[in-house]
Amino acid sequence: MQKRKPEPLTVSPAPKRQKKASSQRGKSSDEKKNASTGEKVSSRGSGQVFSSLFNKNPEIPKLDLSKVQQAKEEIFSIKLFTELKLHPYMVSNLEKEMGFEKATTVQEKAIPVVMKGGDVLIKSQTGSGKTLSYGIPIVQELQSAEGKVQRSDGVYAVILVPTRELAMQSFETIQKLVKPFNWIVPGCITGGEKKKSEKARLRKGVNILVATPGRLVDHIENTAVLQFWRLRWLVLDEADRLLDMGFEKEIAAILNAINSQSEGCQRLLLSATLSQGVERLAGIALNNPTFIDAAKDDVSLPPKKEKDDSIYIPEEEMAQPLVEEEDANFTIPKNLNQYYLIVPSKLRLVTLMALIFSKCKAIVVIFLPASIQQHSSRAKMLIFLSNRDSVEFHYTLMTEILNSEDGQQKASQHLKIFRLHGSMDQQVRKKVYEEFHSRKSGVLLCTDVAARGLDLPDVNWIVQYNTPGTPAEYVHRVGRTARVGRSGHAVIFLAPSEVEYVQTLRNRKISLEEVDHTEILSTLLESAPPELLTDEVFNQRPPKRMEEAATRVQKKLEDFVHSKSDHTNLAKKAYLSFIRAYATYPSSLKHIFHIKKLHLGHVAKSFGLREAPSKFKNKGTKLSASQKHNLQNQQSRKSKPVKKGAMSEFGSGLEGSLVKGKRLKHLQRKKSTKKRKIKK
Ligand SMILES: Nc1ncnc2c1ncn2[C@@H]1O[C@H](COP(=O)(O)OP(=O)(O)OP(=O)(O)O)[C@@H](O)[C@H]1O
Question: Helicase C-terminal domain location, by residue (predicted)?
Fold first, then answer.
C-alpha cells in the first residue's frame, strides 16, 4: 500500500472574523445553550458551569502579507568526498559506513579552510552537516600526525555543545569517524552522568573530548589529569547559544584554562544562526577568524585584529548578552513548510489536541505479518513548550486522556507521547531520547533543551505551542525537521495579541503561511477519539458541528483537570510558570508578548482550568501592583545569568563552581614547564 505522507495543514484564506455570540442572559441557571453552537451545556455532571469556548474571544486580526523571498542555501555541493584530499580510509568510511558520497555545501567550503588552520566561524542552515564539517578535518589531521597519536597524549580537541543529548549525538558521530583510525580515542562528558567514570576515562586518556560546558568546568577544576597542553582545536557548536546568557561564565572559565596551558589552538564556532554578535567574542578569543556562510559564495576574512590570546578573560566581559543583529537573515531549509495559527487563548488547548489527533492518529494500521507490516505514516511530532511545568502538565493530560483506566492505549489511539526537559533524571532523559529517536511516529513534548542540534530521524512536524524567545530560536526549533534536504512542516501558535511576531520573522526573511484554526478544530469531527466526544452530560449523539466537538473535547479536558487535586495543581503550576515565562521575553519582543495583553482567565482555560488561579487572578488584563512587582522580580531574576549551582534549562549540571584564581595561576605556572607540540 502506498505510504501516505501526513498531508500538510490545509492552507486557507485569511480567517473569517469571529461572530460575536449573543449574550446568554436570562437563561435558567442550570440549562444554558451555547449561543454560537446551540449546544446544551449544563452544570450537571462536573458540578461546574462550563463556559462557552466560542464567545467573548478577541477578534482574529486579518494579516495581508505578501510572501518574502527566503534566503537560499543549496544543501549539497557537487564535490565528492574523494575530491577533498582526505585519507582513502576516511572516504571509504564516509561512503560505506555512513552512506555519504557527496559533501554538503558547508562541508565542501569548511573542510579545506579548517585544514589550513586558523580560527573559523561557520554559518550554515540547520541539518546541513556542520558536525562533519569540523569532525572530518580534525580526524583527518590527527590520523596523519607524525609520531602517531597516543591515547595517553590526552586531549587534542574539545567540542563544546549546549545540551547533553547533543553531546551524545556529536560523540557518536565522532566515534563513527574514527573507526578506521582506532588509535584515536573520543570521549564524552556531560552533566548528569557519573563523574567518577568520566574521571576514569580521562585518566586513561581521551584525544577528542565532547562536553557540555558546566561539566567540563567541573573537571577542569577537579580532575588534575585533564590538561590542555596539546590542545589543537576548540569547537563551539551552536556557538551563539553557548555565548548567550547562561553559559558565559563557564565559557570564560574554559577559555581561560585553555589559554593558560595551550600554545594557542584553532577555534571553530558554528551555528545556523551565527550573527555578527559572536564577533564580539571573536574580538576576545578568536584570531582573525575566517567567516564561512554556506549561503554565500565568498569566504570572508574579517579585518585583522592583533590580540594576545593569553589575555585572561574577565568574567564580566563575557557577561553581556549577545545582541542578535536586527538585520541578520537566517536560512530556512528549502523543503520546510511553515505555518502560523492565530488562536484565541480559550481555544488553544483544544486546537492543539485537534492538531495532534489529525496528524498523529492511526491512519491505517495494516494488519500484515510483522515482516512486511508497513508503518502507517503517522506524524512524528515535536511540540515545544515554554517551560518544564508546562511539559509535565500536558504530558500527564495527554497520556491519561489517551489511556484507558488500565493504562493500555485505546486501540483507536496508537499515539505514543514522550516528554523531555532539563529537570528530568538523566537516565530517564536518555531513555526517552533514545526511544523517541528510534520510533517512526509519536509526539515529544519538550522545552528548548531539544531545540538545537538534535538530529531526530523522521520528525516531520514541529509545533511551537509557545513562541520562542528570539527568531534565532525559532529557526533552530523548526530546524529539527526538513534536515539534509528532506521535507517537513512547522506550525506556530499565536494569540491574537501576538500576531506581530509573524512580521518579526518576515523581517528575517522567514515566510509563514496562515492556517485557519477553525479548520484544525473541524478535524475533531473525524479524528477525535470517540470517548472524548460523548459522555453523560452530552448525549451519545456524535457532534455534528466543529463547535460542538470542540466544546465536548474541552469539557473532557477540564473534567480531567478538575477530577483530582494532583491534576489541578499540575495545571495551576503550569499556568503560573507560563505567566512567569511570558514575562521574560527579550525587550525587543516585549511589545508583542506582554502579559497585560493576555486575558488571564482565557489563558487559564488553555490549561483546563475553569478560572485563573488566584495568584494571578484578575478580571481584565491589568495586574495588581503586587502582581506586577512579582512579575518584575521574576523578570529581573530571569534576565540575570544562571547562578552558580542553579540547574540551567539545558541541564548542564552547574554543580561545580568555576575555575578559581588559584587553580588558574597553578595552571599558568605549569605552562612554561610542560609543552609539546604535535608536528604536522
Ligand atoms: N555529506 C552528507 N550527505 C548526506 N547526509 C549527511 C552528510 N553530512 C551529514 N549528513 C547527515 O545530515 C544530518 C544533519 O547533520 P548535522 O546534525 O551535522 O547538521 P547540522 O548542520 O549540525 O544541524 P543543526 O544546525 O541542526 O545542528 C545528519 O543526519 C547527518 O548524518
Answer: 371-536
DSSP E strands in 538-610: the ranges are none
**Residue indicated by cell numbers 530546524:** 479
CB atoms within 10 A of CB 563: 12
d(CA 620, CA 597): 10
pLDDT tens readout for residues 456-483: 989 999 999 999 989 999 999 999 999 9
Total-model pTM: 0.82
Handedness of CA 168, 169, 171, 176 (dihedral sign): positive
Instruction: Give the cell for residue 138.
Output: 580534525
Pocket of ligand 1 (CB under 6 A): 100, 102-104, 107, 124, 126-132, 272, 453, 455, 479, 483-484
Residues ≥6 apart with Cβ < 8 Å to 117: 266
DSSP 320-337: SPPPPPTT---B--TTEE
Give me ligand 1 centre to Cα 458, in Å.
14
Q: Which amino acid is at 180?
A: P
Dump pLDDT digits (tens) for 593-616: 999 999 999 999 999 999 888 765
CA–CA distance, 117 with 77 (Å, rounded to integer): 22
Would you state the cell numbers that stand for residue 219, as one nine-digit string? Answer: 573537571
Ligand 1 centroid – CA 107 distance (Å): 10
User: What's the pLDDT score for residue 299?
Assistant: 67
Residue 636: CB atoms within 10 Å: 11
- Residues 6 or more apart whose Cβ sits within 8 Å of residue 79: 102, 103, 108
Residues forming a β-bridge with 293: 123
506: left (phi over 0), alpha (psi -120 to 50) or beta: alpha
Cα(201) to centroid(ligand 1), Å: 28
Nearest to 292 by CA among 65, 509, 123, 68: 123
Please report the atom of ligand 1 found closest to the CA of residue 104: 1
What number does the ligand 1 atom closest to the CA of 103 have?
A: 1
Q: How far is the CA of 127 from the centre of ligand 1 (A)?
A: 5
Q: Hey, what's the cell of 266?
A: 584553532
pLDDT single digits (tens) 343-374: 999 999 999 999 999 998 754 444 444 444 44
Atom of ligand 1 nearest to the CA of 131: 18
8 pLDDT higher than 70:
no
Determine the Cα–Cα distance for residues 131 and 530; give it in Å rounded to an integer: 46
Provide the 8-state DSSP code for 341: E
Residue 238 CA: nearest ligand 1 atom is: 27
DSSP string, 213-237: HHHHHHHHHH-TT---TT--EEEEE
Nearest atom in ligand 1 to 166's CA: 27
Between residues 97 and 413, the one the model is more confident about: 97
Residue 642, pLDDT above cutoff 60: no
For the CA of 107, the nearest atom of ligand 1? 1
Atom 23 of ligand 1, residue of closest alpha carbon: 127
Residue of 79, 96, 104 to test ligand 1 pocket, by largest number of atoms within 8 Å of CB: 104
Cell of 372: 512486511
Q: Tell me, in angstroms, the distance from the centre of ligand 1 to residue 453's CA.
A: 9
d(CA 322, CA 504): 18
